[in-house]
Amino acid sequence: MNQGGPLLVLALCLLAPLAAGEIFYINVASQILIAAVFAASLNILVGYGGLVSLGHASFFGLAAYAIALLTTRWGYGHFAAILIALLFATLVACVFGAVSLRATGIPFLMITLALGQTLWGVAYRWADLTGGDNGITDVRRPVVLGIDLIEPTAFYLAMVGVLLATMAFLNVFVNSGLGMSLEGARDQPRRMRMLGHGVRMVQWLAFVISGFLAAVSGICFVYYHSYIHPHSLGLATSAEALLMVIAGGVATLAGPLVGAAIVVVFKMVVSAYVTRWVMLLGIVFVLIVIFIPEGVVPGLLRVARRFRVGAK
Amino acid sequence: MSLAFWLVQTLNALALGGLLFLLSAGFSLIFGLMRIANLTHGAYFMLGAYVGLSVLDASWGFFAAVLLGSLAIAVFGAAVQRFILARLGDRVLAQVLVTLGLSFIIADLCLMLWTGDPMQLAAPAVLSRPIEFYGYVFPGYRVFVVAVSLLVAVLLWFLIERTRLGAMVRAAVDDMEMARGMGIRAPRLFTIVFCLGCALAGMGGVLGGPILSVYPGLDAEMLPLALVVVILGGIGSLLGAFIGSFVTGFIYTFGQALLPDFAYVILFLPMIIILMFRPEGLFGEKSG
Amino acid sequence: MITRRTVTICLAATAGATVLPRRNAVSQSGPIRIGFLTVASGALAAGGRQLDEGIKLFLKERNNTIAGRPVEIIFADTAGQPANTRTKTQELVERNKVHVILGPLAAFEALAINDYIQQNETPIVSDSAAAEDLTQRKLNPWFIRVVPTSAQTTHPTAHYAATVLKHRRIATIADDFAFGHEHTAGFQRVFEDNGGKIVQKLWPPLNVADYGSYIAQIKRDVDAIYAGFAGANGLRFLKQYGEYGLAGRLPVYGQMTTVDEGILKNMDNYALGVISGGWYSAAIDTPTNKKFVESVRRDYNADPGYYTTGAYLGGMAVEAAAKAVNGNVEDKKAFMAALRKTNIADTPAGPLKIDEYGNPIFNVYIRKVERKDGRLVNSVIHTYPNVSQFWSYDPKAFLANPVYSRDFPPAKNLE
Fold first, then answer.
1. Which of A25, A55, C9, C97 has its CA 20 to 30 A from that of B86?
2. What DSSP character marks residue C256?
3. B232 pLDDT more than 90
4. In Å, how far is C79's CA from the nearest CA of chain A?
């Protein structure tokens, strides 16, 4: 498969913020990458699995809270905290997956929404543990191989590493037996069952993996911001990730990255120049649906193909 | 807790149920008949309330506010359906993206046009007479809301089950090709249904305004409630939406009074349990 | 296969990245740059708009000049989301190189950026966030605020209720989030220390659809209720309180934000008689305030409330400190020291003095909602002068206790 071109584009996109030299852009880029990992995790469910979830922030936020509590309140070191947070969030994903996958389609969406809102409500209410609306502050970034990640460039490079690892993993996953079964379950569930594939088991595994990756993203998020608030468990966060996935292009590897870039750039950069940036973002989404409803990445590829065909 | 207390809470639960039905009837209609999850619904509700507010400010009266609020959203919805949603067919993800995008636009538009100050929508005095019993007072307007919700439910049922329009819509949803073959103009039909659903959303906003007030963020708070009601009651079932509204009203009202620590999750826990064992909702039909 | 087109595109993209706009270091004779964290979208936008109005009026009155230097103010919309707040703060500090930050609006936003501010040593003047610990147990030498802690105004309100109106049994109902917990706790503590009893505490969620079922739970045999709501909830609650026949029958003590001028203007007769303690009221009868209120009415067709005045006072504090360092705000340490010594005798809210924790010592005005000239106002009926965040308690003992929360002080008199 022709991998060279897209990889080069990716490499240059990742190096661009460093070339720009300004800390502000490096920080925005870090946030894009964190959001991209989160969106990519949701893409497993939504894009490859055909299961639309509105509660994915559950694992994102849970892992973030775990890190915050473990490192600031319970005295754990970062390595142990990361392991425990990943384990905890993944276990919750196992449970939530089992519960949610008793249904498909819209009921599945509603159960994920309800589970997410339940977690949000618990975080809000159980203020003794979570700080409630005040959140948890003063989460320190780890020191990796002698380099303190408080330094923006170092942190950004760490995020690049996380993103590349995620992309590599997803590449393997999508082309693996499990990935193919998942897409089969999305497209032809009845046929899959008749052929002896356990549709629910495949979907559940995908749910757990997707939850794990969301937890990875949540851990990066809390380290970046040094702060966690129930908002990160809430519906708005889940919905934002869903928007990123759909806008970028489901079931593509680059789609979540592009979708994440669009949303983060609007929130962080465009908002400085345009007061009504929320409306503008909405208009962008509507335009995407009108002109490239399959998402930005597949849409641009389609346009590029037409150019190439036309040029011949 | 006295008998009067339980009575008031029952009335509160009924009123909340009525309000929830007015909120979710439109969503249920569009979702049930067209299988479109219209996530702009909360924003339509809020926009309808704001339009109603402006009509009241112009001193045109409450009835005009309800009418114009419904009409404004119906027109807006017709344009959205005709020019955007109709081209999407049944691509769920594109529908999600565009309906959410539209809700961003509408929410920001409301902020622009009406500023962000919270405002009260005044119900006419004749409907707001307090009802007194056993030393308790109950707002008359909430009784009106319950009555209206019953009326709307009956009218909708009649429309869908007993009119030619309803029969055509049901036919088109069941089997589009066959319906077309029989001369039913499906695209125009769908626009009409979507219009009606949006009109109900706008109307719900104005009618709910005197209870909820009008403020930015109303859309984001109402949408999950509408989803809960429709999914709990059962997709495609208007009766389900009706029953679901009142079940939700009761669970919420009594739940938070008896279990205040669970106030944030009282709506969602029962729903999770019900959906786990009956994913099609209380009154929905099992999909194959 | 890597095509020529691919390489061209990539090179173009990289080149494009390098021409992204940058800010250069600015010399000392340039403008004073103020970073203004506000909210322009979402549910908190109304408060953000009022903050904007307050600072704009302040700058307009001073011809956009502070301590002899022009002012450049950069507005940053955080949308009320803590992740955005941090990014915007970073942008203001790193890109715009602001000398001081005014804001943010919400308490959790201030907490989200607290450690960043400390690391980067940027002076910050909060014109809205009321979280207690920011000037108690989580001190930040680079932080001052010109609005009080959550409970600073409810301590005197409770004192007034217990000693002047001599109420004995009160039920509290407040938004179930940190601000609500803190101000209610303050009310409860002083009320019970002065012979009263809090017999019921209700906590409706911040985004509850409807207060009817909560109002029905309020005990009818109390002397009064304490209703602590923020944002739109004050209007919604009081309106429904009236519809359930309790307005006028069961007196209401409010938090300042429950009947803030910003939402009071949209309320009706059901709000009459609500007593609240506030660090400001548009009805304060001093020449300075009269002039201030007139200007706000003229420019914005509304009375100033919490946010408008908070931002205005923030401007005044920045100005006073800038003057104290002869305009040399680049000397961060001196500028911050001046900010922490802010002592302005005459502001629209009365005297403003910053204590050693970075929190203001103010007058607290006990206000009552009345109708004057056809509009609803918070008339001042009593003044407690020079109230600090600790009320009459010893600061060390106060700080040794846990921060005010839903469960502290513990409610021992619930029935």
1. A55
2. G
3. no
4. 9
Which of B15, B117, B216 lies at the smallest CB-CB distance from C212? B15
Chain C residues within 8 A of B222 when measuring between CB atoms: 209
Residue C38 bridge partners (DSSP): C77
Mark yes or no for CB contact C209/B225 under 8 Å.
yes
Asked if B263 lies within 8 A of A243 by C-beta distance, the reply is: no
CATH superfamily, with its number, for domain C154-284+362-400? Response regulator (3.40.50.2300)
Residue B126 pLDDT exceeds 90: no
Q: State whether residue A250 sits within 8 Å of chain B by CB.
A: yes
Under an 8 Å CB criterion, which residues of B touch C?
A: 5, 8-9, 12-13, 15-16, 19, 108, 111, 115-120, 122, 128, 130, 132, 135-139, 141-142, 211-213, 215-217, 220-222, 225, 252-254, 256-257, 260, 263-264
Give the Cα separation of C149 and C142 in Å (integer): 17
Which residues in chain A have their CB less than 8 angstroms from residue B265's CB? 117-118, 121-122
For residue A225 the two structure tokens come to: 């911001």
Question: First CA to last CA across chain B, in angstroms?
Answer: 48
Given a cut of 90, whether residue A15 has pLDDT beyond it is no
CA-wise closest residue to B22 among B135, B142, B186 = B142
Residue A253 is classified by DSSP as S
Please check whether the two domains, C30-148+292-348 and C154-284+362-400, share a CATH topology: yes
A266 touches chain C (CB under 8 A): no
C-alpha span between B226 and B245 (Å, rounded): 9
The domains located in chain A, with CATH, are 4-311 (1.10.3470)
| Six token digits for residue B191 | 């626009």
pLDDT digits (tens, 9 = 90+) for B17-41: 999 999 999 998 888 878 888 999 9
- Residue C100, strand partner residues: C34
Q: Please answer yes or no on whether A115 and B94 come within 8 Å at the CB atom.
A: no
Q: A22, A27, A65, A133: best mutation site toward chain C, by most C Cβ within 10 Å?
A: A133
Task: State the virtual CA torsion across A92, A97, A98, A102 in degrees, nearest 10.
Answer: 150
What does the pLDDT read at residue C23? 44
ipTM over 0.85: yes
Using a CB–CB cutoff of 8 Å, tell me whether B58 touches chain A.
no
What fold characterizes domain C30-148+292-348? Rossmann fold (3.40.50)
- Contacts of residue B198, defined as CB under 8 A and 6 or more positions apart, other chains included, come to B26, B30, B44, B73, B74, B76, B77, B78
CB atoms B276 and A235 under 8 Å: no
Contacts 24+ apart (CB under 8 A), C323-331: C323/C66, C323/C67, C325/C67, C326/C67, C327/C32, C327/C66, C327/C67, C327/C68, C327/C69, C328/C28, C329/C32, C329/C67, C329/C99, C329/C100, C330/C28, C330/C99
SS3 (DSSP) at C62: coil
pLDDT (average), residues A118-132: 91
- What pLDDT sits at residue C31? 93
Mean pLDDT score, A118-138:
91
Q: What are phi and psi of C267, to 5 degrees?
A: -95, 180
Show me where the domains of chain B are located.
3-277
pTM summary value: 0.91
Residue A1: the pLDDT is 42
Domain boundaries, chain C: 30-148+292-348, 154-284+362-400
Percent of chain A with pLDDT over 70: 97
Query: Given a cut of 50, is residue C37 above it in pLDDT?
Result: yes
Structure tokens at A142: 């780890």
- How far, rounded to the nearest angstrom, does the alpha carbon of residue C332 sit from its chain's CA centroid? 25
Test C236 with B213 for CB contact under 8 angstroms. yes
CB distance A117–B265 less than 8 Å?
A: yes
Q: How far from each other are the two terminal CA atoms of chain C, in whole angstroms?
A: 78
